Amino acid sequence: MLTRRLLLQGLIATGGLVSAVGSGAAILPDRQAPPMGIQLYTVLSLLEENFSQTLARLAAIGYREVETMGSFGRDPREVRDLLDKNDLRSASQHVAPLDFYGHFRDLVLGRTKYEDFLRVAVAQTATDQVERVIEKSIPSAKALGQQYIVWPMVWPHQTASRTEMDLLCRAFNKAGAMCKREGLTFAFHNHDDEFRPRQGFVPYDVIVENTDPDTVKLELDLFWITKAGGDPKQYLAEYKDRFRLAHLKDRSKDGGSTSLGSGVLDIKSFIQDGRSAGIDHFYFEGDNLPNSMAAALASYGYLNDIMFRR
Question: What are the angstrom distances between the C-alpha of 233 and each of 168, 230, 240, 268, 269?
Fold first, then answer.
């Protein structure tokens, strides 16, 4: 039987991706589309080539929700107009002040060295900069119609000791209070390092247990927690109602990022467990994919298969 996934994979293999997605016509009917989204970092290089066309291609695939990186160095009102034009919603953003985004974009596009980017990134996302960054991100989130402002990363030196961790947790609590006053919600996105034990503590556990559960929520990244040997099912059950967002990122056999369903991770069970724990927004994300739009298409087809297979 020709499943939706096989049909979409056929489009990719035969080159039909460009014509089907570029036409502006939805590949799958809206009534079949699962409530799934995409983190736009996945297609960042394409956005930089043609921002409006890339959004239109994602909408043509069937995506209806996107997660942004701030407003991509653009006027958030203009970004919102383009989202509305393509019937796309955005519930959340990873904080990316204008200057930070520019350095990140240049890294992804190969215009700057990693060590140069790292120096800027560490300084601009330092613990003592959290309030400043959130203050700048609030107007952007409001203009984009978003509910969540997500802190995307912490650095090893910020979690190296309980003293540093106490400072980080206090900063996150202040950020949570700032967002709440503006009718928004603060959340934290994990990588793998936070799940690796230090002397007597696991940084991720410290963050969860020492931040206000009412104002500091969590975005769980499946790829990174499993890379560190963490059990997402256990965390979703133990800290139920803290999780509101998730990154669906599959892992290939060689440890890299790949399209959903072509890797080794149990995406379907993660979605089921996540929904039970209170996650409202799931985003496909891929890192350094050779053909990011093809991966977005294949991943959407996979999600339709597991959500609507009879």
Answer: 26, 9, 10, 12, 9
Q: Measured between alpha carbons, how far is 10 from 5 in angstroms, rounded to an integer?
A: 9
Q: Give the residue from 59, 53, 66, 2 showing the smallest Cα distance to 27.
A: 59
Per residue in 47-97, pLDDT (tens digit) is 999 999 999 999 999 999 999 999 999 999 999 999 999 999 999 999 997
Contact (CB, 8 A) for 251 and 258: yes
Can you tell me the distance from the alpha carbon of 151 to that of 242, in angstroms, rounded to the nearest whole number?
15
| Domain spans of the chain, in order of start | 4-308
234-241 own/partner pairs: CB under 8 Å, 24+ apart? 236/273, 236/274, 236/276, 236/277, 236/279, 237/273, 237/277, 239/208, 239/277, 240/276, 240/277, 240/278, 241/213, 241/277, 241/278
Task: Supply 157's token pair.
Answer: 């030196």
CB-CB neighbours of 142 under 10 Å: 15
Name the strand (E) or helix (H) holding 36.
strand 36-39
Q: Pick 4-308's CATH classification: 3.30.470.20, 2.130.10.10, 3.20.20.70, 3.20.20.150.
A: 3.20.20.150
Q: pTM of the entire structure?
A: 0.90
Contacts of 230 (CB under 8 A, 6+ apart): 195, 204
Residue that is written with structure tokens 């006053």 in the block = 181
Backbone angles phi, psi at 243, to 5 degrees: -90, 130
Given a contact cutoff of 8 angstroms between Cβ atoms, the answer to whether 165 and 203 are in contact is yes
Q: How far apart are CA 206 and CA 164, in angstroms?
A: 11
